[in-house]
C-alpha cells in the first residue's frame, strides 16, 4: 500500500503491526521485501512518497537500494532492515551489505504506537549484531524507516 505524508495518521488507526518507509531523499529508492517463503521484485519509491505494509511473522527483510538492480547484485550497496514478531515483541535491526547506499545522506528508524518506555531506542547508524526490541502486546506498533530525514 502506498500513502502520502499522511501515512502515519492512517497507520495509527489500524490494528496490525506495520512497517513503513518514508522517502525524503531527492531521488527514488528501490524496496525489496524478503522472508523465508518469497522475495519481491524491486519496487520504486519516489521522492516524497511513503510505503506502508503489514508486518507478520519472523525473518522479514526489507532491502533499500539506490538502483533497481542493486539488491540482487553481488556488489550492490544495500541497507537492510530486518524484523520479526514473536511473543508480543517486535525485534528489529539495521545492517548494510557491500557498502552504505546512504553514505552521503542519513536515515533513522523508530517504533511508534505504544508506551515510549517499552519501545526501545531509535537507530541512526548501522548496528551489526545489535537487535532492538519493542513490546507489542496490542499488535499496534509502526516500525518506520526515514530516508534522508
Short description:
This protein has one helix at residues 7-12, and strands at residues 2-3, 18-23, 29-34, 43-45, 50-54, 60-65, 78-86, 89-97, 107-112, 132-135, 142-147. The chain has 149 residues and is mainly β. Strand 7 (78-86) and strand 8 (89-97) form a beta hairpin.
Please provide a written account of the structure:
This protein is mainly beta. The N terminus is likely disordered. Strand 7 and strand 8 form a beta hairpin. 32% of the residues are buried. The chain has one helix and eleven strands; from the N terminus they run E-H-E-E-E-E-E-E-E-E-E-E. The strands form two sheets. Strands 4-3-6-7-8-10 form a six-stranded antiparallel beta sheet, with no helix packed on it. It has one domain: Thaumatin (Sandwich). Pfam families: Bys1. InterPro entries: CetA-like. Keywords: Signal.
Low-confidence stretches: 1-12
User: Domains counted in the coordinates: how many?
Assistant: 1
How would you classify the helix and strand content by structural class?
mainly beta
- Hey, roughly how much beta strand do the residues contain? 35-45%
What is the radius of gyration computed over CA atoms, rounded to a whole number of angstroms? 14 Å
The DSSP helix count reads 1
Which sheet architecture does the biggest sheet show? 6 strands, antiparallel
Number of strands: 11
Provide the CATH topology: Thaumatin
Pfam family, one: Bys1
InterPro entries: CetA-like (IPR006771)
Keywords: Signal
Signal peptide: 1-16
